[in-house]
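## Example record

The block below lists the input lines for one assembly entry, exactly as stored, with component labels intact.
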Amino acid sequence: MAIALDPQAPLIAQPSRWTLVLRYLRRNPSLPLGLVLLIFLVGFGVIGSLLIDTSTRAYPLAAPPVQPPSAEYPLGTDRDGRDLLAVMVRGVLLTGAVGLMAGTVGIVVGTTVGFVAGYFGGWVDAVIRWLTEVLMTIPPLVLQVIIASTIVDKNKVTIFTMAGVASVLAWMGTARMVRAQVLSLRERAFVNMARLSGMSNLEIIFRELMPNMLPYLAASFVGAVMGAIGASFGLEALGLGPVREPTIGMTIRWAVYHSAIFNQWWWWVLWPVLALILIFASLALINRGLDELANPRVRRTE
Amino acid sequence: MPLAYLLRRVAFMIFVVWSAITLLFFLPRLSPINPVRERFAELQRSTGWAPRDLERLVKVYEVKFGLNKPLHEQYVDYMSSLLRGDLGYSIMRYPRTVGDLIAQALPWTIGLLSVTTLLTFGIGTGIGALAAWPRSPQWVKGLVTPLVVLAAIPPYLLGLLLIYFIAFRAKLLPMGGAYTLGRFTGPELSFPFLLDVARHAILPALSLILSTVGFWALGMRGMGVTVQGEDYVTFAEHKGLSLRRIFYAYYVRNAILPQVTALALAFGSIVSSGILVEYLYGFPGLGSLLNAAILANDFFVIYGIGLITILAVAVSMMVVDLLYPLLDPRIRYTRA
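Predicted structure tokens for the full assembly:
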């Protein structure tokens, strides 16, 4: 029996791709919120450095010392005569650059190590597991302090040194995650199929395994960037940062060092603290959103 | 508990600790920086001796600290003195020993961090359990995301805000230190002193609590969601047990296991997790000691703190592995 369908009747409307994306974002508000914050911060840094000459104004002796916020210096100036608006603009970019550099190293090294350990197994896996176990035993801040205080000359620290020190530990989380994922994917039918059809190891890794792990890798990358910014902030707070660069962490370091709170120079403390809080909050929201995307089990339903 | 498993686990822990210490020993020695020279060069800049005297002093002290010997001999010396519990002398407070300085700072750190760790565990686990419980009000469920975001912010930053708004502006609590210096000459065991210490510890504790509650809440919520779907929870509901009973005995009791192991791990890192906050508040724990050591290039104190933190983490990892089968009957001791 055929059901007569009225060809004119509207089909149940399949929402367009964009509607679906929007609906998903509404269920998972962390992701758009974090992205908006991030875009705001990047915009602040990029547009700010186009409007203000940060290469002089963010450095000492560019302005009269300890001016409270005014029309000329909207965020005030610090004790060494840096214009804090210029410092914030440059600081956000420098801090982001340290995080991106270390995060990139972390994700590349971590993914490689994780794939090698998980895919090939055997003694390679044993060595890598031993190494991560040993490194996990040393508290990150302590290891980084030891590296930064004993290997590097304190007065020659640059943001590249910071990124280097931060990336020493940035790969471990990714490596563990990738290894666990590879172990669980390795025995699936589609991987066996690929192997039987004569794909090489590299081809299997890149064409079969990698695409399945992209959301995890994205979340892991954000985590690594966040960890690197946190690590470099810790070092900067302890006075092991780049002495000559106006990163946000160094600005806080100088403010604390010169007892800005006690001297009632509140603006010198408040802006950098707020800037770092915004950076961490945006990355944490993105990370949580991506995590939800990658892990349907924690997904919230309406 | 099978003895063979215990022995294997202890051996593995010793192996890991040995590797970590070896790494920490060789890492700084790869660098051209000489700690003794750094220290005296700094003194020289502030007092202005002749460079010739500096070289002689460096020589004398290198002999004294054994830094002139070949690397492998230094390593053997270092390891054998560690086995005797000797961490060497502090450079900045010579002739005091590293062990002495750490022993003085450690009680402060352990006191502050053990209280905050237990408090955050309780608060965070409670919030997480309620957030995953279907009958909780909506606002409790919405609490987790803000707490997770808060957890991404270093406690140091929260501490700065608390100092500014609560201690400096509102003058409600002291800005730093561990006790009022004018009132007490040193630590003593009296009620007013303890009260004073508690007052000074509130802000550091609060900065640590605010920034770690989210971690516990997220963990408990994740476990809670999986326990929700278990048959025994549904069965308990159908038996008509009271909600209270289901909540505590069926749901929390089963979801809390990973939290307990995380708590044991957190106790391993209490020596290191408060370092920045302690330094910010001038709390006389390991954090302030580490900061002083960094400023003075006192490498032996830095290694000593590194060693203590490594030992604490390694031991707690081992304890977790050994405890887990006792807590969860589904897990047996087998080859790792």
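Chain B touches chain A through 53 residues (CB under 8 Å). Residues 98-327 of chain B form a domain with the MetI-like fold fold (CATH 1.10.3720.10).
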